[in-house]
Input
Amino acid sequence: MRAKRTSLVHIIYFSRLSLAADPAQRTAQIGDIGRVAQKKNEFSVITSFLVIEGSFAAQVIEGERMSVQETFARIGADQRHRDVQICEWREITKREFVHSFKSAQRVTGTEALFAKANLLPMLQRGTPKASAIHGLAVALQADAMSRQGIDHLFV
Ligand SMILES: Cc1cc2nc3c(=O)[nH]c(=O)nc-3n(C[C@H](O)[C@H](O)[C@H](O)COP(=O)(O)O)c2cc1C
Output
C-alpha cells in the first residue's frame, strides 16, 4: 500500500536582487546561493526553480509545509535580495520540479522562453502573476531536460 503523503505546498515569490554590478562577481554570487540552497533543499526534500530576470529573482519552492515555511523564512532574511513578496502560497497535489535547486537566466538558449513569458514588465510593476512565474519555470525546466534527452517524462 502506498504511504500517505504529507501535505505538500508551494510558495511562489519574487524579489529584487542586490548583487554586484560586475558580471563575474554576480555570477560568483549566484553560484554561492545555488551551492548552499541545493544542499539545504536536498536535506529538507525541497524542490525548487529560480528564475533570474534582469535584477529580479522569482522562485517556486515546493515541499512539505513546514520545510517550505522554514526555507522561505531563511530566504526572506537574506541580504542578497530585498522587497521579497509572495505571489502564491498554497497546497499542491504533486511536485512540478525535479531538482532541489535549479536556476535559469536570460541567455541565448533561453531567450525565446523568457521573451514569450514577458515577465520583466510585470516584475517592474510589482504585479507578476504566480501562474506566469510558474509557467516560465516549468517551460525552462522542460527545455533544460529536453536538451539532456529527458523529454519523455514531461509529456
Ligand atoms: C534569490 C535567492 C534564492 C535562494 N533560494 C534558496 C533555496 O531555495 N533554499 C535555501 O535553503 N536557501 C536559499 N537561498 C539562500 C538563503 O537565503 C540562505 O542564505 C541559506 O539558506 C543559508 O541560510 P543560513 O545562512 O541562515 O544558514 C536563496 C537566496 C537567494 C538570494
Notes: The chain has a mean pLDDT of 95. The longest helix spans residues 23-44. The chain has five helices and five strands. Residues 20 and 32 are 13 Å apart (CA to CA).
